[in-house]
């Protein structure tokens, strides 16, 4: 009996405990529902509403003429708040809206869109993404006029979520120079090239706005005015000439394919200003195609080889009273400095006794190393002080991030040995970037004045100049006039009769230095080569300096004079023809006064004209365009060569014929005077394209 009562007591106590808990729950629910309702609703809303970042519109990157190299183009994602519209507007327009959505996006049928819109409204959804497809700005304007949407955001419920994409109008041209930028959720940036180097100017200042979390973990912007507007980024204007860039890209690409090389670079600089006019970097990817993958010109450091000899020679000229006609005995192609330090020349039997001038002209390793060793072996540090002065041992301070750091052994370093001085003098045991080598030769072209290279000249906000870069002199002179002039003479002879004589075919003079370096792999020098040519033109009054470098050419041609110098010449010809005003006069014939004024033009037109004047004629022609040769009392018609992509010889032609020929190649024509063409601004055979401007003078 006692046990039964004990059990009943326990059950009653448990029951009362459960009832008390239930009552407490009911009371708490009532409290939450009626007493604390406003408090928790506010807290819930606070959790669903958040201030989020609104990205600023990034500034443009422009070429020297204002052409866009990189710009931000707005795209939009289409969303919809089906609860905003009154029933009258929604019911009237939903059928037509569903039709337009099906036609434009082609992702659902009209019936499916109709069902989606009506169901979302019935379920009181406040943010419906209609498609993940990104809409162009022009299409946005059309969509804004669709039924319901034409009522706007507040009555039509249409929401355009803006997404900006970076667009490069010139595609792969200068891609590595322009670079890229990435921004994470915390607004931290990573990237390369101009995009990264000038990000502070380009990025602008992000704004803030209120967003509400909706179903699907989506964030819907709240248009309640509670926001900080983004401040758009500034534009940057570069020094790049895209006509030069395009041609340099084409010529280098063809050379890389021809020589089956690993990579190549071209860097073109204006002598007196330091403006970089073209920069091309092409490397072979896994698929075997050449693309802009790394900035070899600025970031890449490598043993330069014989192009370093120019600096070594200048140091010798400055240190001693040596004359360029003095002799240097290079022997039979081998010279031993120490037991394990044997210098050789590329010429199998050596150059024998040659002049100091010929050391550079023939690119003698023995010649330059003996001169440097003789003048600096007692105090090698003096040699390095010259290299310091030439900016070959430190970075220049170029505007773009990532300039390659020169690497060179100095006396006292663990890597220094008895072989170091002669080997460094010929461009081994030293690593520099193409930019740093170019800067030295630009200084020689500029009569010893060292100018800082730069690639961005203006920061702009619309048409307002915020900041401007001006030419900066690093050193007023790196050497005496005597030494600079002597080296200039040597570099001119390299092209006229030395290791680059194959490119001595232009109608202007080029000065420069070839470079060929055996590459070090696994601690041993191999039969793989790094080739280069650096120089300036025209020699007498230099306007441009350029370096061309190609890594590991395969095939029979492995030297800088064979591989890189022709690339230099082809680019230089175009640059020279585009930038040099020349009067190319028509050469008169002593008998031409006896005939009417016929010199050149369309063959059929001139035949009719000659027949009308009863002029005797003989044809040596097989083309539509001819020039005349006077032979006694007879005119001979000869072919006027017109080749695709090249400037025709239009001297002596009527303006109509001249314009037709030039514009057929895409170039634009300006003219002055009247009569027939007397002079043309681009010489016959010069390359022309759609961005070329040709001026004709008529007399």
UniProtKB/TrEMBL annotation:
GO biological process: cell division; cell wall organization
Compartments where found: Membrane
Annotated InterPro entries: Beta-lactam/transpept, Beta-lactam/transpept-like, PASTA_dom, PBP_dimer, PBP_dimer_sf, PCN-bd_Tpept
One Pfam family linked to the record: PBP_dimer
Assigned keywords, A-Z: Carboxypeptidase, Cell cycle, Cell division, Hydrolase, Membrane, Protease, Transmembrane, Transmembrane helix
Coiled-coil region list: none
Residue stretches spanning the membrane: 7-27
Keyword Transmembrane helix: yes
Domain PASTA intervals: 641-699
GO MF annotation list: carboxypeptidase activity; penicillin binding
Gene Ontology CC entries for this record: plasma membrane
PANTHER family, A to Z: PEPTIDOGLYCAN D,D-TRANSPEPTIDASE, PEPTIDOGLYCAN D,D-TRANSPEPTIDASE FTSI
Protein name: Cell division protein
Record lineage: Bacteria, Pseudomonadati, Bacteroidota, Cytophagia, Cytophagales
């Amino acid at each position: 009996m006692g046990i039964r009562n004990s059990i009943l007591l326990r059950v009653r106590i448990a029951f009362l405990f459960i009832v008390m808990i239930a009552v407490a729950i009911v009371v708490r629910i009532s409290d939450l529902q009626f007493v604390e309702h406003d408090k928790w609703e506010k807290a819930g809303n606070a959790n669903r509403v958040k201030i989020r970042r609104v990205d600023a519109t990034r500034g443009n990157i422009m070429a020297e003429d204002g052409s866009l190299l990189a710009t931000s183009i707005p795209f939009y994602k289409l969303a919809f708040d089906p609860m905003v519209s009154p029933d009258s507007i929604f019911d009237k327009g939903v059928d037509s809206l569903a039709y337009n959505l099906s036609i434009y996006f082609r992702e659902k049928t009209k019936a499916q869109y109709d069902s989606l819109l009506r169901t979302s409204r019935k379920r009181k959804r406040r943010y419906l993404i209609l498609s993940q497809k990104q809409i162009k700005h022009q299409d946005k304007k059309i969509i804004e006029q669709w039924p319901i949407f034409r009522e706007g955001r507040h009555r039509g419920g249409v929401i355009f979520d803006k997404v900006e994409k970076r667009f490069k109008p010139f595609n792969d041209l200068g891609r590595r120079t322009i670079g890229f930028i990435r921004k994470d959720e915390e607004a931290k940036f990573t990237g390369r090239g101009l995009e990264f180097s000038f990000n502070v100017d380009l990025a602008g200042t992000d704004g803030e706005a209120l967003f509400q979390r909706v179903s699907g973990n989506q964030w819907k912007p709240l248009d309640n005015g509670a926001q900080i507007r983004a401040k758009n980024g500034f534009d940057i204007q570069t020094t790049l000439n895209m006509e030069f860039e395009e041609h340099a890209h084409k010529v280098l690409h063809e050379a890389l394919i021809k020589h089956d090389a690993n990579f190549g670079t071209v860097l073109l600089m204006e002598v007196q200003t330091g403006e970089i006019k073209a920069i091309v970097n092409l490397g072979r990817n896994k698929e075997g195609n050449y693309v802009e993958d790394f900035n070899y010109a600025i970031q890449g450091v490598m043993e330069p080889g014989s192009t370093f000899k120019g600096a070594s020679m200048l140091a010798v000229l400055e240190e001693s009273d040596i004359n360029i006609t003095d002799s240097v005995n290079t022997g039979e192609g081998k010279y031993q400095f120490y037991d394990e330090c044997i210098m050789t020349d590329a010429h199998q039997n050596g150059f024998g006794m040659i002049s100091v001038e010929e050391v550079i002209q023939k690119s003698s390793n023995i010649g330059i190393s003996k001169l440097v060793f003789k003048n600096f072996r007692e105090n090698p540090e003096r040699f390095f002080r010259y290299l310091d002065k030439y900016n070959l041992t430190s970075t220049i301070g170029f505007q773009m991030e990532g300039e390659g750091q020169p690497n060179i052994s100095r006396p006292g370093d663990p890597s220094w040995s008895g072989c170091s001085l002669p080997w460094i003098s010929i461009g081994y045991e030293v690593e520099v970037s193409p930019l740093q080598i170019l800067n030295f030769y630009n200084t020689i072209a500029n009569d010893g004045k060292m100018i800082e290279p730069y690639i961005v000249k203006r920061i702009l906000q619309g048409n307002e100049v915020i900041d401007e870069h001006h030419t900066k002199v690093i050193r007023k002179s790196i050497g005496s006039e005597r030494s600079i002039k002597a080296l200039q003479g040597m570099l001119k002879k390299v092209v006229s009769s030395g290791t680059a004589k194959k490119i001595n075919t232009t109608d202007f003079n080029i000065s420069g230095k070839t470079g060929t370096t055996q590459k070090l792999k696994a601690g041993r020098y191999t039969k793989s080569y790094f080739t280069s040519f650096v120089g300036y033109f025209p020699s007498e009054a230099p306007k441009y300096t350029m370096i061309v470098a190609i890594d590991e050419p395969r095939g029979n041609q492995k030297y800088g004079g064979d591989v890189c110098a022709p690339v230099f010449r082809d680019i230089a010809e175009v640059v020279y023809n585009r930038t040099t005003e020349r009067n190319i006069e028509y050469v008169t014939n002593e008998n031409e006064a006896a005939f009417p004024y016929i010199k050149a033009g369309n063959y059929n037109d001139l035949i009719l004209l000659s027949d009308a004047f009863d002029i005797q004629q003989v044809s040596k022609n097989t083309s539509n365009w001819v020039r005349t040769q006077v032979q006694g009392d007879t005119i001979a018609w000869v072919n006027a060569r017109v080749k695709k992509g090249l400037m025709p010889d239009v001297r002596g032609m009527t303006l109509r014929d001249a314009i037709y020929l030039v514009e057929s190649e895409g170039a634009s024509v300006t003219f002055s005077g009247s009569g027939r063409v007397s002079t043309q601004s681009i010489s016959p055979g010069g390359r022309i394209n759609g961005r070329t401007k040709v001026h004709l003078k008529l007399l």
